[in-house]
Design goal:
The chain has 510 residues and is an alpha+beta fold. It has a single domain, classed as Outer membrane efflux proteins (OEP) (Up-down Bundle). α5 packs antiparallel against α6, α6 packs antiparallel against α7 and α6 runs antiparallel to α9. It is elongated and about 145 Å long. The N terminus and C terminus are likely disordered.
């Protein structure tokens, strides 16, 4: 079997010294270094303990504040009116998915440091001690080898050439860092989309309560009016019963609307990284200042005037700006560097080193007599045949690179489909919203006319009830259309890779 061949060149300057005091001084020097090292480690452990005992910023912001009403109250950000930029700012600080993404980003930076290590010089220290009773005496001589042997050295080792692996490692570190940033951006985009959607859900649920309360109020007024007419003998008992049934049927809708409001606020609070205390049973005192509005959607490109988004522009921007595609492109670059690293096994490696070493005398049975001096050298190695290990690594690296290319193509098609779906949904929501602009006004006017005719005796109670139902449906549809428009816009912005507005210094979006 062909073994690994190597050439090892060492130039050393050795000088003997049998002074016991010098050996003792060296031993004391080593002991001092070890003692100070132990003290340093103890200080590090104490600092880590103190830092670990401190609460995190999110924990401090979530902590319950003292109040006059009790031992604790709600966090400051929860007890104040909250706009959408405010909610995004809180999520950036406290959302657990974002915080886990930050941990992943730090871990990736640690991997970058590890990858770059191949290009940095290494400072190595070695030492050893051996006691051997099986020593051989030289014939016709009193000389014998010492039973105790010790040696140690400290050297700096620098890799000069490793078949292209050093340069590839530096490129890999840069790609890994960029990929980690893009992955974190994707986590941010997904999480902030959830926060925006949850914020809009709370606004919708709040408006639905207003609509259902208005519906119950109208039906209660109709019941009261019908009861007065029945007492006056102008309408039959059947009209009163039908009005009571309508009121009873409307109340469950109001109850469900209030429940949806509670659930929506709990969902938003959870996304903001807040754990609802067990003492809060009914509702979270969360007040939102946002409104469901149908603002014209325009896209801004660098050095261009804002214009209404069109599908071709949306597709082009998505393929250019989506972080997920950036992650896959970096992954493809990493796989390409993996091929270079695998092929480096075919080539030799060259290291240089320099340092200082010492060992006890090999000719005098005196443990304290040392021989020390500087050392330097060059190490050259080449695996002439490694059992086809490198060939297998190259085959694997090439296959993984091909897979990375296919991943980019597949993700591009999926993102295009996502953009088309989001764009179509946005167009639908805009058309639905446009169709509902005057429906509520018409429904209110129809109810007014039906009530007037009923009061005049020319209309029926059924006409009034139908008009009230139509008005409630129109108001509900209007709110759903506004909510659908807001959510569809947020999803389209996410699909095309638009940056989400961040809270500025004044707390407003920018």
């Amino acid at each position: 079997m062909i073994q690994k061949s190597s050439v090892f060149l060492v130039c050393s300057e050795l000088r003997g010294n049998n002074t016991l005091d010098r050996a003792i001084a060296k031993a004391g020097w080593v002991w001092g270094i070890g003692l100070w090292g132990c003290r340093f480690l103890a200080l590090l452990a104490a600092a880590a303990f103190l830092l670990g005992a401190r609460p995190s910023p999110a924990t401090e912001s979530n902590a319950l504040k003292p109040s006059a009403d009790g031992p604790a109250s709600l966090p400051i950000w929860l007890s104040q009116p909250m706009s959408l930029p405010d909610a995004i700012g809180v999520a950036l600080r406290q959302n657990y998915t974002i915080r886990k993404g930050q941990s992943d980003l730090e871990a990736a930076y640690g991997l970058v440091v590890q990858t770059k290590a191949v290009a940095w010089p290494k400072l190595r220290g070695t030492s050893g001690y051996t006691h051997d009773e099986a020593v051989e005496e030289f014939p016709l001589s009193t000389f014998k080898l010492p039973k105790d042997q010790w040696a140690g050295d400290v050297r700096i080792v620098q890799s000069i050439y490793e078949g292209g692996r050093i340069q590839s490692a530096l490129r890999t570190a840069r790609l890994t860092k960029d990929q980690a940033l893009l992955q974190y951006q994707a986590v941010l985009a997904d999480t902030l989309l959830e926060v925006r959607t949850a914020y809009f859900d709370v606004l919708q649920a709040e408006q639905q309560i207003v609509v259902q309360e208005a519906s119950v109020k109208l039906l209660m007024q109709q019941l009261e009016n019908t009861t007065h007419r029945f007492d006056a003998g102008t309408v039959p008992r059947f009209d009163v019963l039908r009005a009571e049934v309508e009121v009873a049927n409307a109340r469950p809708k109001l109850i469900r609307a209030k429940n949806q409001y509670r659930i929506a606020k709990s969902t938003l609070a959870t996304l903001l990284g807040y754990r609802v205390p067990a003492t809060i049973w009914e509702d979270i005192p969360l007040t939102l200042t946002g409104r469901l509005e149908a603002e014209p959607y325009e896209i801004e490109l660098p050095e261009a005037e804002p214009y209404e988004i069109e599908l071709p522009a949306a597709l082009a921007q998505a393929l250019e700006r989506r972080a997920e595609l950036g992650v896959l492109r970096k992954a493809e670059g990493l796989r390409k560097e993996g091929i270079i690293t695998a092929k480096s096994g075919y080539k030799p490696t060259l290291d240089v080193f320099a340092g200082y070493g010492a060992h006890n005398s090999r000719y005098i049975d005196d443990m304290w007599r040392d021989v020390s001096g500087a050392l330097a050298g060059v190490e050259f190695s080449w695996d002439i045949f490694d059992g086809r290990l490198t060939k297998g690594k190259v085959m694997q690296a090439k296959a993984l690179h091909d897979k990375a290319v296919f991943d980019i193509e597949d993700a591009s098609h999926r993102i295009e489909l996502e953009v088309r779906t989001a764009y179509s949904t946005f167009q639908e929501s805009r058309e639905v919203l446009e169709s509902q602009r005057k429906v509520q006004e018409q429904a209110e006017e129809a109810l007014r006319l039906a009530t007037s005719r009923y009061d005049a005796g020319t209309g029926t109670q059924l006409d009034v009830l139908n008009a009230q139902t139509s008005l409630t449906e129109a108001r509900t549809t209007q709110i759903e259309a506004l909510h659908g428009y807001a959510v569809a816009r947020a999803r389209l912005e996410r699909a095309i890779g638009c940056d989400v507005a961040q809270p500025g210094p004044d707390g407003k979006g920018r």
